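Onboarding guide, step 5: your first structure request.
Type a short instruction followed by the sequence, for example:

Predict the 3D structure of this protein.
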Amino acid sequence: MIYDPFQKEAIDYINQGFSVIVSAPTGAGKTAIAEHIIKSCLEKNIGVIYTAPLKALSNQKFRDFQNQFGQNIGILTGDVTINQDAPVLIMTTEIFRNKLLDEPQSLKKYLWVIFDEIHYIDNPERGTVWEESLIFLPSHMNILGLSATIPNIKEFVEWLKSIHKKEIKVVIEERRPVPLHFFFQCGNEIIERFEDLKRMHIKKANKLNTLINYIRQKNHLPCIYFVFGRKKAEELAEELHGLDFLNHKERQQIISLYHSLCQRFDLKNERSAQLIYPLIQKGIGYHHAGMLPTLKEVIERLFTSRLLKVIFTTETFALGINMPSRSVIFDDLRKFYGRYMRTLKTRDFYQMAGRAGRRGLDKEGFVYCRINLKRISLEEIKQIIYGRPEEVKSQFNSCYATILNLYERYQEDLFKIYPLSLHYFQAKKYQKKEALRLLEAKLSLLKESDYIKDGKLTPKANFAKNVYGYELILSELYSQNILEQLDEFGLGVLAVAVAFEPRKHQVMPSISKTSRRIKMVCEEIYEQIKHKENHYRIYPLSKPPYFHLSNSVEAWLRGSSFNKIVQLTDTDEGELVRYFRMGIQILREILEAKVSSYILKERVKETLRVLKRDIIDAERQLREG
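The system replies with C-alpha coordinates like these:
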Protein backbone atom coordinates (compact mmCIF):
# COMPACT_ATOMS: atom_id res chain seq x y z
CA MET A 1 0.00 0.00 0.00
CA ILE A 2 1.25 3.50 -0.86
CA TYR A 3 0.81 5.83 2.13
CA ASP A 4 0.48 9.62 2.17
CA PRO A 5 3.40 11.39 3.94
CA PHE A 6 1.43 11.94 7.18
CA GLN A 7 0.30 8.29 7.26
CA LYS A 8 3.90 7.13 6.69
CA GLU A 9 5.18 9.46 9.43
CA ALA A 10 2.64 8.08 11.94
CA ILE A 11 3.36 4.45 10.95
CA ASP A 12 7.13 4.98 11.29
CA TYR A 13 6.62 6.28 14.86
CA ILE A 14 4.33 3.33 15.66
CA ASN A 15 6.90 0.86 14.34
CA GLN A 16 9.46 2.45 16.68
CA GLY A 17 7.10 1.82 19.62
CA PHE A 18 5.85 5.37 20.21
CA SER A 19 2.31 6.43 21.08
CA VAL A 20 0.94 8.76 18.39
CA ILE A 21 -1.82 11.38 18.18
CA VAL A 22 -2.91 12.22 14.63
CA SER A 23 -4.80 15.41 13.76
CA ALA A 24 -6.10 15.43 10.18
CA PRO A 25 -9.19 16.53 8.22
CA THR A 26 -12.19 14.23 7.83
CA GLY A 27 -11.60 11.92 4.86
CA ALA A 28 -7.79 12.28 4.97
CA GLY A 29 -7.27 8.55 5.61
CA LYS A 30 -6.62 8.25 9.35
CA THR A 31 -8.18 4.74 9.49
CA ALA A 32 -5.28 3.34 7.43
CA ILE A 33 -2.97 4.04 10.40
CA ALA A 34 -5.28 2.11 12.75
CA GLU A 35 -5.38 -0.79 10.25
CA HIS A 36 -1.57 -0.90 10.22
CA ILE A 37 -1.51 -1.33 14.03
CA ILE A 38 -4.14 -4.09 13.89
CA LYS A 39 -2.30 -5.95 11.12
CA SER A 40 1.12 -5.78 12.79
CA CYS A 41 -0.27 -6.68 16.25
CA LEU A 42 -2.06 -9.73 14.86
CA GLU A 43 1.22 -10.88 13.27
CA LYS A 44 2.95 -10.59 16.68
CA ASN A 45 0.04 -12.04 18.74
CA ILE A 46 -0.49 -8.73 20.54
CA GLY A 47 -3.93 -7.52 21.61
CA VAL A 48 -5.50 -4.25 20.37
CA ILE A 49 -8.51 -2.30 21.66
CA TYR A 50 -10.36 0.06 19.31
CA THR A 51 -12.70 2.54 21.00
CA ALA A 52 -15.36 4.62 19.26
CA PRO A 53 -17.74 7.30 20.60
CA LEU A 54 -20.99 5.80 19.29
CA LYS A 55 -22.43 2.29 19.25
CA ALA A 56 -23.32 2.75 15.57
CA LEU A 57 -19.69 3.56 14.80
CA SER A 58 -18.47 0.60 16.91
CA ASN A 59 -20.83 -1.68 14.97
CA GLN A 60 -19.63 -0.36 11.63
CA LYS A 61 -15.97 -0.81 12.59
CA PHE A 62 -16.75 -4.36 13.74
CA ARG A 63 -18.21 -5.17 10.32
CA ASP A 64 -15.40 -3.43 8.41
CA PHE A 65 -12.60 -5.04 10.41
CA GLN A 66 -14.29 -8.44 10.41
CA ASN A 67 -14.28 -8.33 6.60
CA GLN A 68 -10.52 -7.68 6.73
CA PHE A 69 -9.40 -9.71 9.73
CA GLY A 70 -12.12 -12.35 10.16
CA GLN A 71 -12.55 -14.03 13.54
CA ASN A 72 -9.77 -11.94 15.11
CA ILE A 73 -12.34 -9.20 15.79
CA GLY A 74 -14.70 -8.98 18.79
CA ILE A 75 -17.05 -6.28 20.07
CA LEU A 76 -18.32 -5.08 23.48
CA THR A 77 -20.81 -2.20 23.63
CA GLY A 78 -22.96 -2.90 26.69
CA ASP A 79 -25.87 -4.37 24.72
CA VAL A 80 -23.66 -6.42 22.36
CA THR A 81 -21.02 -9.01 23.25
CA ILE A 82 -19.53 -10.98 20.34
CA ASN A 83 -16.21 -12.87 20.45
CA GLN A 84 -15.09 -11.04 23.63
CA ASP A 85 -11.77 -12.95 23.87
CA ALA A 86 -10.67 -11.85 20.39
CA PRO A 87 -7.19 -10.30 20.01
CA VAL A 88 -8.81 -7.16 18.54
CA LEU A 89 -11.70 -5.84 20.64
CA ILE A 90 -13.90 -2.96 19.52
CA MET A 91 -15.79 -1.16 22.27
CA THR A 92 -17.40 2.13 23.16
CA THR A 93 -15.15 4.41 25.20
CA GLU A 94 -17.53 4.00 28.18
CA ILE A 95 -16.93 0.23 28.24
CA PHE A 96 -13.16 0.76 28.05
CA ARG A 97 -13.25 3.27 30.94
CA ASN A 98 -15.35 0.84 33.01
CA LYS A 99 -12.84 -1.95 32.38
CA LEU A 100 -9.96 0.29 33.46
CA LEU A 101 -11.70 0.94 36.78
CA ASP A 102 -13.48 -2.39 37.43
CA GLU A 103 -11.17 -5.05 35.99
CA PRO A 104 -7.81 -3.58 34.85
CA GLN A 105 -6.24 -7.07 34.93
CA SER A 106 -8.40 -8.06 31.94
CA LEU A 107 -6.43 -5.59 29.78
CA LYS A 108 -2.96 -7.11 30.29
CA LYS A 109 -2.80 -8.77 26.87
CA TYR A 110 -3.72 -5.56 25.01
CA LEU A 111 -0.70 -3.40 24.20
CA TRP A 112 -2.43 -0.81 21.99
CA VAL A 113 -5.59 1.23 22.40
CA ILE A 114 -6.91 3.21 19.43
CA PHE A 115 -9.13 6.18 20.30
CA ASP A 116 -11.22 7.11 17.28
CA GLU A 117 -12.54 10.71 17.33
CA ILE A 118 -10.38 11.55 20.37
CA HIS A 119 -11.47 15.22 20.14
CA TYR A 120 -14.76 13.93 21.64
CA ILE A 121 -13.00 14.63 24.97
CA ASP A 122 -14.66 18.06 24.85
CA ASN A 123 -18.19 16.69 24.46
CA PRO A 124 -20.21 18.23 27.35
CA GLU A 125 -22.17 15.04 28.13
CA ARG A 126 -19.56 12.34 27.61
CA GLY A 127 -16.12 13.95 27.35
CA THR A 128 -15.24 12.96 30.92
CA VAL A 129 -15.20 9.30 29.84
CA TRP A 130 -12.36 10.00 27.36
CA GLU A 131 -10.44 11.95 29.97
CA GLU A 132 -10.75 9.22 32.59
CA SER A 133 -9.75 6.58 30.01
CA LEU A 134 -6.57 8.52 29.25
CA ILE A 135 -5.77 9.28 32.92
CA PHE A 136 -6.10 5.66 34.07
CA LEU A 137 -4.47 4.09 31.03
CA PRO A 138 -2.09 1.28 32.17
CA SER A 139 1.63 1.99 31.62
CA HIS A 140 2.02 -1.05 29.30
CA MET A 141 -0.49 0.32 26.74
CA ASN A 142 0.37 2.56 23.81
CA ILE A 143 -2.10 5.07 22.34
CA LEU A 144 -3.10 5.90 18.81
CA GLY A 145 -5.45 8.90 18.96
CA LEU A 146 -7.28 9.87 15.77
CA SER A 147 -8.68 13.38 15.73
CA ALA A 148 -10.34 15.92 13.49
CA THR A 149 -8.30 19.08 12.93
CA ILE A 150 -7.86 20.86 16.29
CA PRO A 151 -5.54 23.84 16.77
CA ASN A 152 -4.41 22.97 20.33
CA ILE A 153 -3.43 19.36 19.58
CA LYS A 154 0.12 20.05 20.88
CA GLU A 155 -1.25 21.30 24.23
CA PHE A 156 -3.39 18.14 24.43
CA VAL A 157 -0.31 15.94 23.82
CA GLU A 158 1.77 17.91 26.35
CA TRP A 159 -0.90 17.03 28.94
CA LEU A 160 -0.70 13.33 28.00
CA LYS A 161 3.11 13.39 28.25
CA SER A 162 2.93 15.08 31.66
CA ILE A 163 0.75 12.34 33.18
CA HIS A 164 2.28 9.28 31.49
CA LYS A 165 5.91 10.41 31.58
CA LYS A 166 6.70 9.03 28.15
CA GLU A 167 7.25 10.37 24.66
CA ILE A 168 4.10 10.78 22.55
CA LYS A 169 4.48 11.83 18.92
CA VAL A 170 2.18 14.32 17.16
CA VAL A 171 1.37 14.03 13.47
CA ILE A 172 -0.51 16.94 11.90
CA GLU A 173 -1.96 16.92 8.39
CA GLU A 174 -3.74 20.08 7.30
CA ARG A 175 -4.16 19.27 3.61
CA ARG A 176 -7.20 17.35 2.43
CA PRO A 177 -6.45 14.67 -0.19
CA VAL A 178 -9.59 15.87 -2.03
CA PRO A 179 -9.86 19.69 -1.80
CA LEU A 180 -13.25 21.29 -1.17
CA HIS A 181 -14.98 23.83 -3.39
CA PHE A 182 -17.73 25.95 -1.78
CA PHE A 183 -21.01 27.13 -3.30
CA PHE A 184 -23.88 29.12 -1.77
CA GLN A 185 -27.59 29.16 -2.52
CA CYS A 186 -28.99 32.57 -1.65
CA GLY A 187 -32.09 34.29 -3.04
CA ASN A 188 -32.58 31.11 -5.12
CA GLU A 189 -29.33 31.83 -7.00
CA ILE A 190 -26.28 29.57 -6.89
CA ILE A 191 -23.19 31.63 -6.05
CA GLU A 192 -19.67 30.29 -6.53
CA ARG A 193 -17.70 32.92 -4.61
CA PHE A 194 -18.20 34.01 -1.00
CA GLU A 195 -17.42 37.63 -1.99
CA ASP A 196 -20.45 37.64 -4.32
CA LEU A 197 -22.81 37.10 -1.35
CA LYS A 198 -22.17 40.74 -0.40
CA ARG A 199 -24.01 42.01 -3.48
CA MET A 200 -27.13 39.93 -2.85
CA HIS A 201 -30.50 41.74 -2.62
CA ILE A 202 -32.86 38.95 -1.69
CA LYS A 203 -36.08 38.91 -3.67
CA LYS A 204 -36.73 35.17 -3.79
CA ALA A 205 -36.73 32.32 -1.31
CA ASN A 206 -34.36 29.40 -1.85
CA LYS A 207 -36.01 26.45 -3.58
CA LEU A 208 -34.80 22.90 -3.09
CA ASN A 209 -35.46 21.85 -6.70
CA THR A 210 -33.35 24.74 -8.02
CA LEU A 211 -30.35 23.58 -5.98
CA ILE A 212 -30.73 19.87 -6.70
CA ASN A 213 -31.17 20.44 -10.44
CA TYR A 214 -28.04 22.60 -10.48
CA ILE A 215 -26.05 19.88 -8.69
CA ARG A 216 -27.39 17.29 -11.09
CA GLN A 217 -26.46 19.35 -14.17
CA LYS A 218 -22.96 19.91 -12.79
CA ASN A 219 -22.59 16.12 -12.33
CA HIS A 220 -22.00 16.62 -8.58
CA LEU A 221 -24.11 13.65 -7.47
CA PRO A 222 -24.29 11.65 -5.24
CA CYS A 223 -24.86 14.12 -2.43
CA ILE A 224 -25.42 14.05 1.32
CA TYR A 225 -27.88 16.69 2.50
CA PHE A 226 -27.36 17.58 6.19
CA VAL A 227 -30.42 18.81 8.04
CA PHE A 228 -30.77 19.49 11.80
CA GLY A 229 -34.07 17.73 12.45
CA ARG A 230 -35.41 14.24 11.82
CA LYS A 231 -38.83 15.32 10.63
CA LYS A 232 -37.35 17.86 8.24
CA ALA A 233 -35.06 15.20 6.73
CA GLU A 234 -38.15 13.18 5.75
CA GLU A 235 -40.10 16.23 4.57
CA LEU A 236 -37.30 17.42 2.29
CA ALA A 237 -36.89 13.93 0.82
CA GLU A 238 -40.64 13.87 0.05
CA GLU A 239 -40.31 17.30 -1.57
CA LEU A 240 -38.12 15.70 -4.23
CA HIS A 241 -40.61 12.93 -5.06
CA GLY A 242 -41.23 14.49 -8.50
CA LEU A 243 -37.57 14.00 -9.51
CA ASP A 244 -36.03 10.72 -10.66
CA PHE A 245 -32.26 10.23 -10.41
CA LEU A 246 -31.97 6.71 -11.82
CA ASN A 247 -31.88 5.21 -15.28
CA HIS A 248 -33.76 1.97 -16.01
CA LYS A 249 -30.81 -0.31 -15.18
CA GLU A 250 -30.03 1.46 -11.90
CA ARG A 251 -33.70 1.33 -10.89
CA GLN A 252 -33.80 -2.44 -11.40
CA GLN A 253 -30.59 -2.80 -9.37
CA ILE A 254 -31.74 -0.65 -6.43
CA ILE A 255 -35.17 -2.36 -6.28
CA SER A 256 -33.53 -5.79 -6.26
CA LEU A 257 -30.96 -4.78 -3.62
CA TYR A 258 -33.60 -3.09 -1.42
CA HIS A 259 -35.88 -6.14 -1.46
CA SER A 260 -33.04 -8.54 -0.65
CA LEU A 261 -31.79 -6.33 2.22
CA CYS A 262 -35.32 -5.91 3.63
CA GLN A 263 -35.72 -9.68 3.56
CA ARG A 264 -32.37 -10.21 5.30
CA PHE A 265 -33.23 -7.70 8.04
CA ASP A 266 -36.87 -8.72 8.53
CA LEU A 267 -38.24 -5.44 7.21
CA LYS A 268 -40.64 -6.73 4.54
CA ASN A 269 -43.72 -5.95 6.64
CA GLU A 270 -42.40 -2.84 8.41
CA ARG A 271 -44.48 0.24 7.63
CA SER A 272 -41.43 2.55 7.70
CA ALA A 273 -39.67 0.39 5.09
CA GLN A 274 -42.78 0.55 2.87
CA LEU A 275 -43.11 4.34 3.28
CA ILE A 276 -39.58 5.05 2.05
CA TYR A 277 -39.77 2.58 -0.85
CA PRO A 278 -41.29 4.98 -3.48
CA LEU A 279 -38.37 7.37 -2.85
CA ILE A 280 -35.78 4.57 -2.99
CA GLN A 281 -37.00 3.66 -6.49
CA LYS A 282 -36.03 7.19 -7.58
CA GLY A 283 -32.58 7.18 -5.90
CA ILE A 284 -33.68 9.27 -2.88
CA GLY A 285 -33.40 8.33 0.81
CA TYR A 286 -33.28 9.68 4.36
CA HIS A 287 -31.42 8.53 7.49
CA HIS A 288 -31.79 9.63 11.14
CA ALA A 289 -31.81 8.33 14.73
CA GLY A 290 -35.61 7.98 14.82
CA MET A 291 -35.50 5.16 12.23
CA LEU A 292 -35.17 1.46 12.95
CA PRO A 293 -31.47 0.54 13.20
CA THR A 294 -31.95 -2.20 10.59
CA LEU A 295 -33.60 0.22 8.14
CA LYS A 296 -30.77 2.72 8.69
CA GLU A 297 -28.31 -0.05 7.82
CA VAL A 298 -30.23 -0.83 4.63
CA ILE A 299 -30.06 2.87 3.63
CA GLU A 300 -26.31 2.94 4.38
CA ARG A 301 -25.75 -0.08 2.15
CA LEU A 302 -27.79 1.44 -0.65
CA PHE A 303 -25.68 4.59 -0.38
CA THR A 304 -22.35 2.73 -0.47
CA SER A 305 -23.62 0.85 -3.53
CA ARG A 306 -23.77 4.32 -5.22
CA LEU A 307 -27.33 3.69 -6.34
CA LEU A 308 -28.78 6.16 -3.84
CA LYS A 309 -28.05 9.59 -5.31
CA VAL A 310 -29.46 11.99 -2.69
CA ILE A 311 -29.66 11.23 1.03
CA PHE A 312 -31.19 13.59 3.61
CA THR A 313 -29.62 12.96 7.00
CA THR A 314 -28.84 14.35 10.43
CA GLU A 315 -25.29 15.10 11.55
CA THR A 316 -24.55 11.70 13.18
CA PHE A 317 -24.06 10.42 9.61
CA ALA A 318 -20.85 12.49 9.54
CA LEU A 319 -19.27 11.03 12.67
CA GLY A 320 -16.76 8.40 11.66
CA ILE A 321 -19.14 6.46 9.41
CA ASN A 322 -17.24 6.05 6.15
CA MET A 323 -19.88 7.27 3.69
CA PRO A 324 -18.25 9.81 1.37
CA SER A 325 -20.13 11.42 -1.52
CA ARG A 326 -19.33 13.86 -4.32
CA SER A 327 -21.23 16.74 -2.70
CA VAL A 328 -22.50 17.83 0.69
CA ILE A 329 -25.39 20.27 1.24
CA PHE A 330 -26.06 22.20 4.46
CA ASP A 331 -29.73 23.02 4.95
CA ASP A 332 -28.69 25.63 7.54
CA LEU A 333 -25.52 26.90 9.19
CA ARG A 334 -27.25 27.21 12.56
CA LYS A 335 -28.28 24.44 14.95
CA PHE A 336 -29.26 23.73 18.54
CA TYR A 337 -26.34 23.19 20.90
CA GLY A 338 -27.89 21.84 24.09
CA ARG A 339 -30.46 24.49 25.00
CA TYR A 340 -29.83 27.27 22.52
CA MET A 341 -29.52 27.96 18.81
CA ARG A 342 -26.17 29.16 17.50
CA THR A 343 -24.04 29.12 14.36
CA LEU A 344 -22.23 25.88 13.59
CA LYS A 345 -18.82 25.38 15.14
CA THR A 346 -16.09 25.31 12.50
CA ARG A 347 -15.00 21.85 13.63
CA ASP A 348 -18.57 20.50 13.34
CA PHE A 349 -18.95 22.11 9.91
CA TYR A 350 -15.84 20.36 8.61
CA GLN A 351 -16.77 17.04 10.21
CA MET A 352 -19.81 17.12 7.87
CA ALA A 353 -18.28 18.98 4.91
CA GLY A 354 -15.44 16.45 4.97
CA ARG A 355 -17.80 13.81 3.58
CA ALA A 356 -17.61 15.62 0.21
CA GLY A 357 -15.05 14.23 -2.21
CA ARG A 358 -14.40 10.50 -2.51
CA ARG A 359 -10.72 9.68 -2.27
CA GLY A 360 -9.56 7.92 -5.43
CA LEU A 361 -12.78 8.85 -7.27
CA ASP A 362 -13.07 12.65 -7.12
CA LYS A 363 -10.49 15.37 -7.82
CA GLU A 364 -12.45 17.76 -5.60
CA GLY A 365 -15.48 17.74 -3.29
CA PHE A 366 -18.36 20.21 -3.50
CA VAL A 367 -20.00 21.85 -0.49
CA TYR A 368 -23.28 23.76 -0.90
CA CYS A 369 -24.54 26.05 1.88
CA ARG A 370 -28.14 27.26 1.79
CA ILE A 371 -28.08 30.83 3.08
CA ASN A 372 -30.78 33.09 4.46
CA LEU A 373 -29.13 36.45 5.17
CA LYS A 374 -32.01 37.42 7.47
CA ARG A 375 -30.95 34.63 9.86
CA ILE A 376 -27.17 34.67 9.54
CA SER A 377 -24.61 37.41 8.84
CA LEU A 378 -21.79 37.30 6.30
CA GLU A 379 -19.30 37.58 9.16
CA GLU A 380 -20.76 34.48 10.83
CA ILE A 381 -20.64 32.51 7.55
CA LYS A 382 -17.02 33.56 7.05
CA GLN A 383 -16.09 32.41 10.58
CA ILE A 384 -17.73 28.99 10.11
CA ILE A 385 -16.06 28.22 6.76
CA TYR A 386 -12.78 30.12 6.89
CA GLY A 387 -12.24 30.48 10.65
CA ARG A 388 -9.90 28.60 12.95
CA PRO A 389 -11.37 25.34 14.33
CA GLU A 390 -12.30 25.46 18.03
CA GLU A 391 -9.77 24.28 20.60
CA VAL A 392 -10.44 21.14 22.62
CA LYS A 393 -11.47 22.06 26.17
CA SER A 394 -11.93 19.62 29.05
CA GLN A 395 -15.45 18.85 30.32
CA PHE A 396 -14.22 16.87 33.35
CA ASN A 397 -16.93 15.92 35.87
CA SER A 398 -16.57 12.39 37.32
CA CYS A 399 -19.70 10.37 38.05
CA TYR A 400 -20.46 8.66 41.40
CA ALA A 401 -19.45 5.18 40.14
CA THR A 402 -15.99 6.46 39.14
CA ILE A 403 -15.56 8.16 42.54
CA LEU A 404 -16.50 4.95 44.36
CA ASN A 405 -14.08 2.87 42.28
CA LEU A 406 -11.32 5.39 42.96
CA TYR A 407 -12.13 5.59 46.69
CA GLU A 408 -11.87 1.81 46.94
CA ARG A 409 -8.37 1.98 45.46
CA TYR A 410 -7.01 5.29 46.82
CA GLN A 411 -9.22 6.28 49.79
CA GLU A 412 -8.86 10.05 50.47
CA ASP A 413 -5.91 10.17 48.06
CA LEU A 414 -8.43 10.13 45.19
CA PHE A 415 -8.22 13.94 45.30
CA LYS A 416 -4.68 13.56 43.94
CA ILE A 417 -6.24 12.23 40.73
CA TYR A 418 -7.77 15.58 39.76
CA PRO A 419 -4.39 17.31 39.16
CA LEU A 420 -3.75 14.63 36.49
CA SER A 421 -6.77 15.76 34.46
CA LEU A 422 -6.78 17.84 31.28
CA HIS A 423 -9.16 20.16 33.15
CA TYR A 424 -6.46 20.91 35.74
CA PHE A 425 -3.90 21.33 32.93
CA GLN A 426 -6.08 23.90 31.11
CA ALA A 427 -8.21 25.56 33.80
CA LYS A 428 -7.85 28.87 35.59
CA LYS A 429 -7.41 28.93 39.37
CA TYR A 430 -11.11 29.52 40.18
CA GLN A 431 -12.15 26.69 37.78
CA LYS A 432 -9.75 24.26 39.49
CA LYS A 433 -11.13 25.26 42.88
CA GLU A 434 -14.72 24.65 41.73
CA ALA A 435 -13.88 21.27 40.14
CA LEU A 436 -12.25 20.13 43.40
CA ARG A 437 -15.24 21.39 45.41
CA LEU A 438 -17.59 19.39 43.19
CA LEU A 439 -15.53 16.23 43.69
CA GLU A 440 -15.52 16.77 47.48
CA ALA A 441 -19.28 17.44 47.43
CA LYS A 442 -20.00 14.15 45.64
CA LEU A 443 -17.82 12.23 48.08
CA SER A 444 -19.55 13.93 51.04
CA LEU A 445 -22.97 12.97 49.65
CA LEU A 446 -21.83 9.35 49.22
CA LYS A 447 -20.59 9.24 52.82
CA GLU A 448 -23.75 10.85 54.20
CA SER A 449 -25.89 8.37 52.23
CA ASP A 450 -24.06 5.31 53.65
CA TYR A 451 -22.13 4.36 50.53
CA ILE A 452 -18.90 4.68 52.51
CA LYS A 453 -18.53 3.73 56.18
CA ASP A 454 -15.31 3.72 58.21
CA GLY A 455 -13.26 4.20 55.05
CA LYS A 456 -14.81 1.21 53.25
CA LEU A 457 -17.44 0.73 50.58
CA THR A 458 -20.76 -0.64 51.83
CA PRO A 459 -22.72 -3.31 49.85
CA LYS A 460 -24.81 -0.46 48.41
CA ALA A 461 -21.61 1.18 47.09
CA ASN A 462 -20.36 -2.11 45.66
CA PHE A 463 -23.60 -2.22 43.69
CA ALA A 464 -23.39 1.47 42.67
CA LYS A 465 -19.86 1.25 41.29
CA ASN A 466 -21.17 -1.04 38.51
CA VAL A 467 -24.08 1.07 37.23
CA TYR A 468 -22.41 4.10 35.64
CA GLY A 469 -24.62 7.14 35.16
CA TYR A 470 -27.64 5.83 37.09
CA GLU A 471 -25.88 4.99 40.36
CA LEU A 472 -27.96 6.70 43.02
CA ILE A 473 -31.50 5.81 41.95
CA LEU A 474 -30.68 2.15 41.23
CA SER A 475 -28.54 1.72 44.35
CA GLU A 476 -31.22 3.13 46.64
CA LEU A 477 -33.74 0.72 45.07
CA TYR A 478 -31.21 -2.09 45.57
CA SER A 479 -30.48 -1.24 49.22
CA GLN A 480 -34.20 -1.06 50.06
CA ASN A 481 -34.67 -4.54 48.53
CA ILE A 482 -37.10 -3.11 45.96
CA LEU A 483 -35.18 -4.54 42.97
CA GLU A 484 -35.48 -8.05 44.42
CA GLN A 485 -39.24 -7.68 44.75
CA LEU A 486 -39.74 -6.82 41.06
CA ASP A 487 -40.66 -9.46 38.49
CA GLU A 488 -39.43 -9.34 34.87
CA PHE A 489 -42.12 -6.77 33.98
CA GLY A 490 -41.11 -4.44 36.80
CA LEU A 491 -37.38 -4.82 36.08
CA GLY A 492 -37.90 -4.18 32.36
CA VAL A 493 -40.08 -1.13 32.96
CA LEU A 494 -37.60 0.27 35.49
CA ALA A 495 -34.47 -0.30 33.34
CA VAL A 496 -35.99 1.51 30.34
CA ALA A 497 -37.42 4.32 32.54
CA VAL A 498 -33.99 4.96 34.07
CA ALA A 499 -32.51 5.43 30.57
CA PHE A 500 -35.40 7.27 28.89
CA GLU A 501 -35.20 11.00 28.19
CA PRO A 502 -38.49 12.52 26.92
CA ARG A 503 -38.55 15.14 24.21
CA LYS A 504 -39.56 18.65 25.16
CA HIS A 505 -43.35 18.77 25.75
CA GLN A 506 -43.69 14.96 25.33
CA VAL A 507 -46.83 13.89 27.19
CA MET A 508 -46.75 11.10 29.76
CA PRO A 509 -49.41 8.47 28.85
CA SER A 510 -51.67 6.68 31.31
CA ILE A 511 -49.78 3.62 32.61
CA SER A 512 -50.62 0.33 34.36
CA LYS A 513 -51.04 -0.04 38.12
CA THR A 514 -47.73 -1.96 38.36
CA SER A 515 -45.80 0.76 36.53
CA ARG A 516 -47.51 3.46 38.61
CA ARG A 517 -46.35 1.78 41.82
CA ILE A 518 -42.75 1.63 40.62
CA LYS A 519 -42.98 5.24 39.42
CA MET A 520 -44.22 6.44 42.84
CA VAL A 521 -41.39 4.68 44.68
CA CYS A 522 -38.82 6.11 42.24
CA GLU A 523 -40.20 9.63 42.55
CA GLU A 524 -39.97 9.48 46.34
CA ILE A 525 -36.36 8.26 46.20
CA TYR A 526 -35.42 10.73 43.47
CA GLU A 527 -36.75 13.68 45.50
CA GLN A 528 -34.43 12.67 48.37
CA ILE A 529 -31.48 12.39 45.94
CA LYS A 530 -32.27 15.78 44.39
CA HIS A 531 -32.58 17.38 47.83
CA LYS A 532 -29.11 16.09 48.81
CA GLU A 533 -27.54 17.15 45.50
CA ASN A 534 -29.01 20.64 45.85
CA HIS A 535 -27.74 20.80 49.42
CA TYR A 536 -24.19 20.00 48.25
CA ARG A 537 -24.54 22.22 45.13
CA ILE A 538 -23.88 19.27 42.82
CA TYR A 539 -24.55 19.73 39.10
CA PRO A 540 -25.75 18.49 36.77
CA LEU A 541 -28.40 16.80 38.94
CA SER A 542 -28.87 13.02 38.64
CA LYS A 543 -31.34 12.15 35.92
CA PRO A 544 -34.84 11.10 37.11
CA PRO A 545 -36.51 8.00 35.62
CA TYR A 546 -39.27 8.70 33.07
CA PHE A 547 -42.01 6.11 32.56
CA HIS A 548 -43.31 7.21 29.14
CA LEU A 549 -42.41 3.84 27.54
CA SER A 550 -43.85 1.60 30.27
CA ASN A 551 -46.85 0.42 28.21
CA SER A 552 -44.58 -0.47 25.28
CA VAL A 553 -42.16 -2.33 27.57
CA GLU A 554 -44.93 -4.35 29.24
CA ALA A 555 -46.50 -5.27 25.88
CA TRP A 556 -43.11 -6.29 24.47
CA LEU A 557 -42.36 -8.48 27.50
CA ARG A 558 -45.72 -10.18 26.97
CA GLY A 559 -44.70 -11.08 23.43
CA SER A 560 -46.40 -8.33 21.37
CA SER A 561 -44.99 -7.49 17.95
CA PHE A 562 -42.85 -4.40 17.43
CA ASN A 563 -45.54 -2.86 15.20
CA LYS A 564 -47.97 -3.16 18.11
CA ILE A 565 -45.73 -1.58 20.75
CA VAL A 566 -44.89 1.38 18.46
CA GLN A 567 -48.60 2.29 18.56
CA LEU A 568 -48.48 2.56 22.37
CA THR A 569 -46.09 5.54 22.34
CA ASP A 570 -45.38 8.75 20.46
CA THR A 571 -41.63 8.01 20.57
CA ASP A 572 -39.94 7.37 17.19
CA GLU A 573 -39.37 3.67 16.50
CA GLY A 574 -35.58 4.10 16.29
CA GLU A 575 -35.55 5.82 19.67
CA LEU A 576 -37.75 3.05 21.08
CA VAL A 577 -35.18 0.45 20.01
CA ARG A 578 -32.34 2.57 21.40
CA TYR A 579 -33.94 2.94 24.85
CA PHE A 580 -34.83 -0.75 25.01
CA ARG A 581 -31.20 -1.56 24.22
CA MET A 582 -30.02 0.91 26.88
CA GLY A 583 -32.34 -0.90 29.29
CA ILE A 584 -30.60 -4.16 28.35
CA GLN A 585 -27.23 -2.58 29.15
CA ILE A 586 -28.47 -1.42 32.58
CA LEU A 587 -29.84 -4.90 33.35
CA ARG A 588 -26.50 -6.43 32.37
CA GLU A 589 -24.69 -4.08 34.76
CA ILE A 590 -27.06 -5.15 37.58
CA LEU A 591 -26.39 -8.78 36.66
CA GLU A 592 -22.61 -8.26 36.76
CA ALA A 593 -22.66 -6.57 40.19
CA LYS A 594 -21.05 -9.09 42.57
CA VAL A 595 -23.36 -8.06 45.42
CA SER A 596 -26.57 -8.75 43.45
CA SER A 597 -28.35 -11.71 45.09
CA TYR A 598 -29.01 -15.01 43.34
CA ILE A 599 -32.75 -14.21 43.25
CA LEU A 600 -32.14 -10.80 41.62
CA LYS A 601 -29.72 -12.26 39.09
CA GLU A 602 -32.15 -15.00 38.05
CA ARG A 603 -34.94 -12.44 37.58
CA VAL A 604 -32.67 -10.17 35.57
CA LYS A 605 -31.68 -13.12 33.34
CA GLU A 606 -35.35 -13.85 32.70
CA THR A 607 -36.04 -10.18 31.92
CA LEU A 608 -33.13 -10.12 29.47
CA ARG A 609 -34.37 -13.31 27.82
CA VAL A 610 -37.80 -11.85 27.03
CA LEU A 611 -36.62 -8.28 26.36
CA LYS A 612 -33.76 -9.12 23.99
CA ARG A 613 -35.54 -10.54 20.94
CA ASP A 614 -36.24 -9.72 17.30
CA ILE A 615 -35.39 -6.12 16.40
CA ILE A 616 -34.27 -5.22 19.94
CA ASP A 617 -31.49 -7.82 19.74
CA ALA A 618 -28.51 -5.75 18.56
CA GLU A 619 -26.23 -8.81 18.55
CA ARG A 620 -28.52 -10.60 16.12
CA GLN A 621 -28.47 -7.61 13.77
CA LEU A 622 -24.66 -7.59 13.77
CA ARG A 623 -24.31 -11.35 13.31
CA GLU A 624 -26.82 -11.48 10.45
CA GLY A 625 -25.50 -8.30 8.85
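Each response can be followed by summary notes, for example: The CA atoms of residues 74 and 83 lie 4 Å apart.
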